[in-house]
Each structure stands twice: as structure tokens, then as C-alpha cells.
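Colleagues,

For the teaching module next term, I've prepared a clean inverse folding example: a structure given as C-alpha cells, and then the sequence designed for it. I'd like students to try predicting residues themselves before seeing the answer, so please don't circulate the second half yet.
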């Protein structure tokens, strides 16, 4: 797949038309256009044919490899400003000083000149639309409306339609570019300049020219351009761009520091992966690709616009013809009213603001540490009514912790922990690590003469001539060690000394610090939480009781999938699943929104629709809130645009609104909807 930027792509309808046309080309296997980022991803054999197809549809749109620079004060701006000023002054002079037939001709000539110059792009666009047999785009509609105004001798209104529509289109296109640039800049982490260390000298060099193995200097406040190894003994970095965490992270020598991290102190590093292959590049690509996966609302608005414009156009024709023909009313009056209705037929406010709004929501989520692979998943997340969680590594830390010690046969708790520590001194198993961290006794020198591990059972060791056996119930039976039976499920470690049972230790996975808070907050949002785990009933029950949620225990991967399928059929809204392991991959793929922990396996991330880069459940909660607020803003724009346009249709029908007001109303609605959509970026 090749990636190109599309210069002068300022219309969402144009983007949809180009995408559809490219997908129909024989030489194109796949083509996706993101209006939010002005990017084209294409897999084709003939790029020249692709360029020709784009030129036929939109001659001003060009394929470029670099992002288009945005300029406000252009020749077009000053020309439009001059034309608007000249038109307004001429109308004022005409009405107050020169209302005679002798001067009227001169003013008409002047206005027609202003009309032709300001509408040159509209004329070209309308001609192109006629050639492509597209009769209901904004250029055709504005040309038709202005010609009709000339026909009823409404010269001022005819010129105002063209000049203010052109000025509004310029401002609207500039606003779209600025909006997209603001959103893109919030997710653009590529650094242009780096400080390379060569022969004990620091040389400024383009960051994209750095190679693996080269040493670089990073000063305080600068962003790391490539994944690198730390050469200093210790350094601190702000990693918020990668994981959304505001707290700095400390790194030690030889640690891997990812591109996008910001240095909190000057430090030296060695490049081990260039930016194009870095974790940050993958994140940036995911954000860009996400805008190409359109939501149901975006697809609906695209379809709606296709039918809305012709319906309004034919409604205007009916308003212009039916009253005069069937009721004997004045033609000029009803044609004027029809033109007012026609002015609000352009659906730009909807087709521009909706994709911009969703892309803003995606960017806001990425800034908090959540990557969604499409705006369709952001929309689905706003409709989630049940979240199913895996337990280990998701709701819990995935680290076993000693929760209690039960001594027997005259021994105390410290004795049990002491001998457990002896037995596990040479082991790196998570159980051994938890026992080591729990033992708070005096320092002890271990004199191990024998040590052996029994897979799935436990360990046997001889320390200071005493035989210690530690493990589950099965290892006690293996060595015929008498002990009481215990009705306890979970991670239970029995300890025996010289074949005598001295007690047992209960280990459990520790809850994440934010788990209870997040599950409670989800409940307040009317979202149910359910736990699906492969662990036994005892550890699952302990966690579920603390969280106050339903749970399913002792599940195989296929059983998790089956239960999630049942939950989807019995839940009214969407169902999300949060997991981190390889065994979670099928369940993640089945969920309406599959959410993977960033520290989880690559397989689970590939099957997920959303990735929590910082492993924080609070990020999940925040992203759900972003999704819901984005949906509200999108719906606000849709309702606002339809209500205002509906009001102008009614006002135009009753002869209350003028063409001037309708033109300003149409442009104003588009600009206000766009400004409202930009709020999604700040959620």
C-alpha cells in the first residue's frame, strides 16, 4: 500500500466520489481516502491512471508526497476581499445616490463583472459536474440559483449568491484545513532534527537520516526521534505521547526508550530502531488508518446527502411553479421564495463536520493512551452496555501476593514463611518471587545441598540438612506426607519439613489500584461489568466480591468465547471485552469492541479494535466518556444543521427570509458545525 496526500481536497463529497471512482479502476486493488487527514492509501499497478481519474473528477486535487502547507493570506483571499468590498460599496451607492436608469446600466455591468470573477470556480465546477452527469452538487445548485435570480431581475441577490457563496466556501475550506491540521498536529510525533554525536562533536542532522547504532544527544524538553538505548546511568522521560501517563518514567542504562518520549534532562542514547519502524510510527499509522474506517453515522450522512440535495432541489421547483400555475400567484415572488429554499440545499455542514468530529474524538482518545482502529469502533464504544473483563493482567496486576499464612503442628507463620523461602531460594517462578517479597524475617544464609523441581507440583530442597517440600496437595501425596484436607480453591502452597506438614500459604493476584473505581464508574454510566477467567472459583470469587460484579470461572478459551456470544445475544447494547493474553484473542475478535492491554501479547493486539497503551483501566473509562461525548457533539451538529435548514425552508416558503439571509445562514451553519466538531479534540 502506498500513501499519498491529496492537495486541495476540501470537500467530503469529493473525497467519497474520488474513492468510489478509484475503487472501480481495473488497476486498483484497494483504495481508501481519509477526508480527515487528506490521505490516500492505495494498492495499484498504474499510478498514472489513478492521477488521470482524479483529474477528471476534481482537476484541482493533486497527489503529493508532502503535507500541504496552509496559508490564510493568499491571492484568492485578497481578490475575494476586494470583490466583496467593491460589491457592498456599489450597492450602498446605488441605493442612496444613483437610482436612475442611466446609472443602473453601469452598476449592472459592474455587478456582472463581480459575478463572473467571483464565480469562476463555480462555473468550472458546474461544467465538470455536467460532464460527469452529476446535477446536484453545490456548484450546479449555486449556478442555477443565481441564473434564476437574474431572470426575475434580482441583480443584487444574484451577485450576492455567487460572491458570498464563494467567500463562504473559501472560509469553510480554510477552516476545514485548519481543523484537520490541528488534529493531525496533535498526533504527529515525528521529529525533524536530531543531534548526532560524531567524533566527540554534536552535529545537527535530519532525524529521518539517523541510522541504527548512531549515538545522539537529547536535550531537556526535546522529543526522542527514534527508539533508542539509554547510554547514561539514569534518565527521566515524559512518555505521555506514547501511553497518556502524565507522571515521568525513570530509565536505567541500556533500557529501551521509545520514540516520542520527551527528555526531562539532557542525556545520551544509541539508536536501535529508526522512526519508520518505531512503536510511535505504528501508533501514528494506527491513528491515520482509523479515520478511514468510517462509522455508521458517517456512512448514513454520505447516503443522506446523496438524496437530500435532489429532494430540496425539486421541492424548490415545486415552490416556484405550483402556486403561480395553479393559484394564479406572482411568478417572480414564488421563484424568489424557491431560491431561498435552494440556498439551504447544500449539506456541507453535515458531510464536513461529522468526519472531522469523529477524527477529533480518535485523536483525543490517543492522547489519553487509547488507540482505536476506526471511528466505527469509537461509535460502537459509545453504545456499550456491558464490558467483559479477563482477570489476570486486566483487573489484577498479574503478580501473585501472599494474602495469608496458616501454620500447623506447633509452628508459627514466620516459620512457615522461613522454610518456604528456603525451598524457593533458587527458583524464579512467580510463586517464589511472591514468597521472597512477603518474608520479613532476619537475613538468612541458605546452605542448600539438594534442589529439584517437580513440574506442576512444587519443589524439594535440603537446607541445613533439613528436607523441605513446598507445593500443592499433589506433591504431599507424592511423598506420602500426612496432612489435613482443606476445602480451599486457589493458589495454595503446602510446606513440609522432614516429611512433616507445618502449614500452608495462600497466594492471590492483587487487584489493580483503579479496578474498583472504574467498575463503580461504569455502573454509574449504566454499563454492567462481567469477569471471565480461566482461574478457579476461589480467586475469581474474591476478586468479583471486591468489584461487585458477576463472574465466570475455570473457563477454557473456547468457553470464554461461547459465554461472550451468549452475552451478546442477551444484551441490548454493544458488548466490549478487555483482555491481554494469547488465549483472549478469539474473544477479542468476537466482541463488538475488543480491547487489548498494551502490555499484552502481539496476537491479542492484532485481534483487538482498541489498545490501551498504558494498561490503565482509567484510560478505558475515559475513552468510553470520550466516545459518548463525541456522539453527542455529532448529533448536536446533525440536529442543528437540519433544524436551521428546516427553518429557512419554512421562512423561505412564507416569504419571510431573503436570499442574503439564506446564503449567510448556510455558510454560518457549516462554520458553526465545524467549530463545534473541533470540541471533540478537547474531550
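(Answer key — instructors only)
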Amino acid at each position: 500500500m502506498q500513501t499519498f496526500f491529496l492537495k486541495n481536497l476540501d470537500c467530503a463529497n469529493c473525497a467519497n466520489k474520488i474513492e468510489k471512482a478509484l475503487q472501480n479502476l481495473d488497476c486498483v486493488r484497494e483504495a481508501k481516502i481519509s477526508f480527515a487527514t487528506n490521505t490516500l492509501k492505495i494498492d495499484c499497478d498504474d499510478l498514472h491512471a489513478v492521477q488521470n481519474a482524479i483529474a477528471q473528477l476534481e482537476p484541482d486535487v493533486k497527489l503529493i508526497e508532502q503535507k500541504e502547507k496552509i496559508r490564510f493570506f493568499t491571492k484568492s483571499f485578497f481578490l475575494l476581499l476586494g470583490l466583496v468590498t467593491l460589491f457592498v460599496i456599489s450597492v450602498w451607492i446605488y441605493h442612496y445616490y444613483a437610482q436612475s436608469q442611466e446609472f443602473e446600466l453601469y452598476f449592472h455591468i459592474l455587478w456582472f463583472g463581480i459575478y463572473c470573477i467571483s464565480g469562476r470556480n463555480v462555473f468550472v465546477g458546474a461544467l465538470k459536474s455536467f460532464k460527469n452527469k452529476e446535477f446536484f452538487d453545490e456548484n450546479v445548485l449555486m449556478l442555477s440559483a443565481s441564473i434564476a435570480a437574474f431572470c426575475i431581475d434580482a441583480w443584487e441577490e444574484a451577485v450576492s449568491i455567487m460572491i458570498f457563496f464563494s467567500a463562504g466556501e473559501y472560509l469553510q475550506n480554510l477552516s476545514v484545513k485548519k481543523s484537520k491540521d490541528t488534529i493531525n498536529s496533535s498526533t504527529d510525533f515525528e521529529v525533524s532534527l536530531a543531534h548526532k554525536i560524531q567524533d566527540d562533536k554534536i552535529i545537527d542532522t535530519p532525524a529521518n537520516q539517523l541510522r541504527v547504532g548512531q549515538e545522539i544527544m537529547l536535550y531537556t524538553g526535546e522529543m526522542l526521534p527514534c527508539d533508542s538505548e539509554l547510554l547514561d546511568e539514569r534518565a527521566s522521560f515524559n512518555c505521555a505521547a506514547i501511553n497518556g501517563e502524565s507522571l515521568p518514567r525513570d530509565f536505567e542504562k541500556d533500557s529501551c526508550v521509545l520514540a516520542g518520549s520527551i527528555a526531562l534532562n539532557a542525556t545520551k542514547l544509541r539508536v536501535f530502531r529508526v522512526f519508520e519502524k518505531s512503536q510511535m510510527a505504528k501508533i501514528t499509522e494506527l491513528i491515520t488508518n482509523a479515520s478511514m474506517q468510517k462509522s455508521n453515522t458517517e456512512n448514513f450522512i454520505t447516503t443522506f446527502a446523496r438524496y437530500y440535495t435532489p429532494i430540496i432541489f425539486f421541492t424548490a421547483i415545486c415552490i416556484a411553479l405550483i402556486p403561480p400555475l395553479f393559484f394564479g400567484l406572482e411568478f417572480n415572488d414564488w421563484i424568489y421564495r424557491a431560491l431561498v429554499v435552494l440556498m439551504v440545499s447544500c449539506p456541507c455542514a453535515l458531510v464536513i463536520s461529522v468526519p472531522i468530529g469523529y477524527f477529533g474524538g480518535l485523536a483525543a482518545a490517543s492522547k489519553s493512551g487509547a488507540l482505536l482502529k476506526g471511528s466505527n469502533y469509537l461509535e460502537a464504544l459509545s453504545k456499550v452496555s456491558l464490558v467483559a473483563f479477563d482477570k489476570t493482567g486486566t483487573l489484577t496486576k498479574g503478580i501473585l501476593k501472599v494474602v495469608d499464612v496458616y501454620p500447623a503442628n506447633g509452628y508459627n507463620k514466620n516459620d512457615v514463611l522461613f522454610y518456604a523461602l528456603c525451598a524457593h531460594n533458587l527458583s524464579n517462578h512467580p510463586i517464589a518471587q511472591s514468597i521472597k517479597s512477603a518474608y520479613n524475617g532476619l537475613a538468612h544464609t541458605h546452605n542448600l545441598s539438594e534442589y529439584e523441581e517437580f513440574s506442576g507440583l512444587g519443589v524439594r530442597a535440603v537446607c541445613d540438612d533439613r528436607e523441605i517440600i513446598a507445593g500443592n496437595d499433589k506433591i504431599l501425596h507424592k511423598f506420602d506426607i500426612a496432612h489435613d484436607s482443606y476445602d480451599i480453591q486457589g493458589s495454595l502452597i503446602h510446606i513440609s519439613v522432614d516429611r512433616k506438614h507445618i502449614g500452608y500459604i495462600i497466594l492471590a493476584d492483587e487487584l489493580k489500584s483503579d479496578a474498583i473505581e472504574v467498575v463503580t464508574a461504569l455502573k454509574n454510566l449504566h454499563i454492567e461489568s462481567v469477569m471471565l477467567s480461566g482461574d478457579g472459583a476461589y480467586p475469581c470469587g474474591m476478586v468479583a466480591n471486591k468489584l461487585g460484579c458477576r463472574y465466570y470461572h475455570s473457563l477454557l478459551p473456547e468457553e470464554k468465547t461461547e459465554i461472550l456470544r451468549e452475552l451478546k445475544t442477551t444484551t441490548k447494547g454493544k458488548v466490549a471485552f478487555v483482555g491481554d493474553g494469547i488465549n483472549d484473542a478469539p474473544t477479542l475478535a468476537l466482541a463488538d469492541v475488543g480491547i487489548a492491554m498494551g502490555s499484552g501479547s502481539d496476537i491479542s493486539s492484532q485481534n483487538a479494535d482498541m489498545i490501551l497503551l498504558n494498561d490503565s483501566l482509567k484510560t478505558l473509562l475515559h475513552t468510553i466518556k470520550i466516545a459518548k461525548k463525541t456522539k453527542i457533539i455529532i448529533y448536536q451538529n446533525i440536529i442543528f444543521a437540519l433544524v436551521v435548514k428546516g427553518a429557512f425552508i419554512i421562512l423561505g416558503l412564507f416569504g419571510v427570509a431573503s436570499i442574503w439571509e439564506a446564503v449567510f445562514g448556510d455558510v454560518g451553519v457549516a462554520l458553526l458545525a465545524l467549530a463545534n466538531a473541533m470540541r471533540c479534540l478537547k474531550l
